[in-house]
Amino acid sequence: MIILIFLPNDINRWAKYAVLTLVQGYPYCHPILVSMNSMNAGSVRTRTVVSSVYNMAVQAASLIASNIYQPSDAPYYHKGNRVLAGLSGASIALVLFAKLWYSYRNKQKSKIWDNYTLAEKEEYLATTTDKGNKRLDFKFLH
Fold first, then answer.
1. What is the average pLDDT value for the chain, to the nearest integer?
2. How many CB atoms lie within 10 A of CB 99?
3. With contact defined as beta carbons under 8 Å apart, do 106 and 15 qualify?
C-alpha cells in the first residue's frame, strides 16, 4: 500500500497496472482468520459467538471500506491510499499483538500444566469443570 502513496501521477500506465496488480495480488487472510478463530474458541458455544462476532466485524468493515475512496480524491486517491496504508499498519500491529498474547497465554498454562505430576494431570482431566480454551491442556493456535 505504501507504494501507492508515493507513486507519481504521471507514471506509465503499464507500470501502474503492474504495481496495482502486485498490490491486489496478496493472499486473502479471511479463511486463515476464520479457522484460527474457530480453533481458539475451544467449545462449540464459544465458537458460535466468536463466529458471529467475527462475521459482524467483517460486514461492518465492508461498509466502512466502501467509503474510503471518495469522488473528491479522484482519480489517484492519494488520501484513500494513505488511509488504507494506515489500516494495514494497524492490522499488522494487531496480528503481532495476537501472536504475543497467545504465546503468553500458552506459556502461562504450560507453566501450571508442566508442574503437575502424572496423577495430578489425570485427576484434573477427570474432574475439571473447565471447558474449551479455559482448560489447562488447551493450546491456542497462533
1. 94
2. 11
3. no
